[in-house]
Specification:
Helix content of chain A: 40-55%
Radius of gyration of chain B: 17 Å
Helix content of chain B: 40-55%
Number of helices of chain B: 4
Oligomer: heterodimer
Shape of chain B: elongated
Number of strands of chain B: 6
Structural class of chain B: alpha+beta
Order of helices and strands of chain A: HEEEEHEEHH
Distance between the termini of chain B: 45 Å
Strand content of chain B: 25-35%
Distance between the termini of chain A: 44 Å
Shape of chain A: elongated
Largest sheet of chain B: 6 strands, antiparallel
Chain lengths: 161, 162
């Protein structure tokens, strides 16, 4: 269902709030628009692996999604193991989740904040970003070590406790 | 780190907004405000299975979390299969996710919203409650069928892809 006029206006406000937040912390980003959705794209250098971040404002649903795919895919012989690792990682998260496509082995972090009839602050989006970066940075190297056979599932589980 | 005075006041406002939303929609609920993260519990009517929702307002994190346990205990011989099904289910969701513990075979749906520097409207929490209910109702029966071997993983995937 397409967004209403009010949702489009709200989406535009939310988009500007996120851009203002990124400007205030001196992040460089690109933007584009896909149908009604606003997309903001930037890369953050973590402790080890660079993190490409998409923040998508979806007016028709009144939500902002932060998405970041891991720059590797689990090979076929590791896909079941990786699904279990993703489940273990997700259970420890308070916000956000790792989505996993069993068909191609892609792992993607997703964090959503809805804004139904609510005006959200720059501070909220900055915190949303910081939390996402924290979890992605914490898990991307563990997932990669599992993918490369440098860590076993049991070691992944042990690292959680 | 404990909540600041301002975070506690904001948490109280958010807690009241959620209670007002529940009152306005005729829900019965219980509260526990003795905790550092005040809690609201309620049960939703369902023809198929009970749906219990537990809401935490976390002032120190400026976060509201809705947890909906899935009324299902996965037997040990099905835990890997359900782990795969959970990843398939989560991939279809635009908001929230199913958390799954491999060791206990327990599932819950989780959806959160931050409130730092923002006072969410009642509509925000009505959305979170409705989303939790529909996600749990949509997937619980499918998880159950998988657990009881009435459905294969391939059939599960086809069913959620519709």
């Amino acid at each position: 269902m397409p967004a209403t006029e009010q949702q489009l206006l709200m989406g535009e406000k939310v988009f500007h709030t996120i851009c203002n937040m990124l400007n205030s912390i001196n992040y460089h980003y690109d933007t584009d628009r896909r149908d009604e959705d606003y997309r903001i794209i930037f890369t953050v250098n973590g402790d080890d692996i660079p993190m490409k971040i998409f923040m998508i404002v979806r007016p028709a649903r009144d939500v902002v999604s932060l998405l970041s795919s891991m720059p590797f895919q689990a090979p076929e012989d590791k896909r079941v193991e990786m699904a279990m690792a993703v489940a273990v990682a997700n259970y420890g998260l308070i916000e956000g989740t790792f989505d996993y496509d069993i068909n191609d082995g892609e792992i993607r972090y997703r964090q959503t904040n809805s804004y139904h009839e609510s005006l959200l602050s720059e501070a909220l989006f900055e915190k949303m970003l910081n939390i996402a970066l924290h979890w992605i940075d914490r898990y991307n190297d563990r997932f990669m070590m599992l993918e490369k056979g440098l860590m076993t599932l049991q070691q992944f589980i042990d690292a959680e406790s | 780190m404990p909540a600041t005075e301002q975070q506690l006041r904001m948490g109280e406002k958010v807690f009241s907004t959620i209670c007002n939303m529940l009152d306005a929609n005729g829900f019965r609920y219980e509260t526990d405000t003795s905790r550092s993260d005040p809690m609201i519990t309620l049960s939703l009517k369902s023809d198929i299975f009970p749906v219990k929702v537990i809401i935490f307002v976390r002032p120190e994190r400026e976060l509201v979390s809705f947890y909906t346990p899935v009324q299902l205990k996965v037997p040990e011989d099905k835990r890997v299969e359900i782990a795969l099904a959970v990843t398939m289910a989560n991939e279809r969701l635009i908001d929230g996710c199913f958390d799954y513990t491999l060791f206990k075979g327990e599932l819950r749906f989780r959806i959160t919203a931050g409130f730092i520097g923002s006072l969410p409207d009642q509509e925000q929490f009505r959305y979170m409650l409705g989303f939790s209910e529909s996600a749990v109702k949509r997937f619980t029966e499918l998880f159950l069928m998988l657990t009881k071997s009435v459905m294969t993983l391939e059939q599960f995937y086809e069913a959620i892809a519709k």
